From TrEMBL:
Residues 43-221 form the SusD-like N-terminal domain. Its main location: membrane. It comes from the Bacteria. Residues 1-20 form the signal peptide. InterPro entries: SusD-like_N, SusD_RagB_dom, TPR-like_helical_dom_sf. Keywords: Cell outer membrane, Membrane, Signal. Belongs to the SusD family. This is RagB/SusD family nutrient uptake outer membrane protein.
Length: 502
């Protein structure tokens, strides 16, 4: 299905400033770099597209840094030298890891692009107030999203509220996590007022006021998770009432709605369906605008058996679904077959019993190459909003009760073909979320948010670590990643490394 919106083309601005493939070690660009741009409303639209462009790595990143880190995946490779091995193995030497560095650089690149739009936006060039408000709202939503991604990976961060010179950037230290959250929440509250409740035509897929509200609700829930004493993303602030108010608004007043068939949510011909509140948009056609995720989560030996699949799709290494996740599905749970490819026979006749994610895979529509899968990646779904509401109620948010929690969970279970349950607890809810969102990159963050990451992972590690590469147990410092080594050496003493990392 042809996409209605192409958000991820390198605009003329971004071609002149930095290529789509290049990553910045420091955010700022000089004033001279943009002197000949931002002269028309169309150029501002190009620029905001450039800010959206930094969402393109999110699907692979969530697979690398959340799914692989969690109890959903056992990712130790045969050689132990793949980039994700140290992530999977909780290594203390991750500061030199390319995945950790890319997450930092790409997010701050997105923040720089959003800041550039905000700095330059003015009524003299964009005279239409509605267009100007929407540009500002999108830039603030994206800046908040990039900062939220960063604070969950790294904890304390430098705050850039505008584009600064490279010299000025070297004088800006990391701010505390509460200060970063204040900045995020300010942006989202502003975006809620500036953005439309929906887009039409070619603009479908851009951020809406409902997306800002849903993201802010997730921020409140994350902040409210137990404080692990590490200056990480959870602060124990008990903002469940605030989250519940936002979630109820989305449920009661938005155009987003329940989708009765689970598989159809991820159907290539049903993108931007009512379950999708905000996603990363991709488009096939050999233009470099497609997704790499379906092949990246798979394995070449599988794709070699499927006609017309461009090869190689991924590394030859399995990152196999953990036995714990496989066994967590009840019989007849339709989500398992949608989410997981469990076994196949390779082109040499060898039977492979290990499993991998296939949730975003459609073998009949692979695109032109391994970078070209035409499937969007959901960042916030309506189902997530419902289950976040259940979470807020169970945590003591005012205005809901146990029956409402049970009803929400049983809606999700009924769609999965399962019998209803009663007396849903936080542990039951966490498990239901695991099965519903497996492969969508939420698991690690939710283990942290629910206060279960140490308990769950320390029970899981000895059961799954067949190659004996993981530690016997993890500690709270493992919840966040180290600051990339390249950032520590730009100016000695500007940033202090996160505790316990080399």
């Amino acid at each position: 299905m042809m996409k209605k919106i192409t958000l991820y083309i390198c605009s003329l601005l971004m071609v002149s400033l930095v290529s789509c493939e290049e990553e910045l070690d420091q955010i700022p660009l000089s004033e001279a770099s943009t002197a000949n741009f931002y002269r028309t409303p169309a150029e501002f639209e190009q620029a905001i597209n450039g800010a959206y462009a930094q969402l393109r790595p999110f699907p692979d990143r969530y697979y690398d840094l959340s799914e692989t880190r969690s109890d959903n995946i056992y990712g130790s490779s045969t050689t132990g030298v793949r980039p994700w091995d140290p992530v999977n193995d909780f290594a203390r030497t991750l500061s030199n890891n390319e995945l950790i560095e890319a997450a930092w650089n790409q997010n701050f690149n997105g923040i720089m692009r959003a800041n550039t739009v905000l700095d330059r936006l003015n009524a003299d060039v964009v005279s239409d107030e509605t267009q100007r408000n929407r540009l500002e709202g999108q830039a603030k939503f994206l800046r908040a999203l990039y900062y939220f991604d960063l604070v969950r990976w790294y904890g304390k961060l430098p705050i850039y509220s505008s584009v600064v010179t490279p010299a000025a950037a070297l004088e800006i230290p990391r701010s505390s996590v509460p200060e970063v959250y204040d900045f995020i929440m300010s942006d989202l509250n502003s975006a809620m007022e500036l953005l439309p409740d929906r887009w039409t035509g070619a603009n479908v897929g851009r951020a809406t006021s409902w997306a800002a509200k849903a993201l802010l609700a997730r921020v409140h829930l994350t902040r409210s998770g137990p404080d692990y004493g590490i200056e990480g993303p959870t602060l124990g602030v008990n903002e469940y009432d605030q989250a519940l108010t936002l979630l109820n608004d989305i449920i009661n007043n938005s155009h987003h709605a329940w989708v009765s068939d689970y598989a159809s949510i991820f159907d290539y011909d049903n993108e931007n369906n009512p379950d999708i509140i905000f996603d990363v948009q991709f488009q096939s056609g050999g233009l470099g605008l497609g997704s790499t995720l379906p092949g990246y989560m798979g394995v070449s030996s599988y794709f070699n058996t499927v006609p017309n699949i461009p090869s190689p799709q991924s590394s030859v290494e399995f990152r196999e679904i953990s036995d714990d996740l496989l066994n967590a599905y009840e019989p007849n749970d339709v989500r398992k077959a949608v989410t997981i490819q469990q076994g196949f026979t390779d082109d040499f006749g060898n039977v492979e019993t290990r499993a991998f994610y296939r949730k975003f895979l459609n073998e009949a529509n692979p695109g032109l190459d391994r970078f070209d899968w035409p499937i969007n990646f959901p960042l916030i779904r309506y189902t997530d909003v419902l289950l976040m509401k259940a979470e807020a109620i169970l945590r003591g948010g005012a205005g809901g009760g146990q029956q409402e929690v049970d009803d929400i969970v049983n809606m999700v279970r009924a769609r999965a073909g399962l019998e209803p349950v009663s007396g849903v607890t936080l542990d039951m809810l966490l498990e239901e979320r695991r099965l519903e969102f497996a492969g969508e990159g939420l698991r690690w963050h939710e283990l942290v948010r629910f206060g279960k990451v140490i308990e769950k992972m320390n029970a899981w590690l000895p059961q799954e670590d067949e190659l004996n590469r993981m530690p016997a147990s993890i500690e709270p410092f493992n919840i966040i990643y180290p600051i990339p080594f390249t950032q520590l050496t730009v100016k000695r003493g500007l940033y202090e490394q996160n505790a316990e990392y080399n």
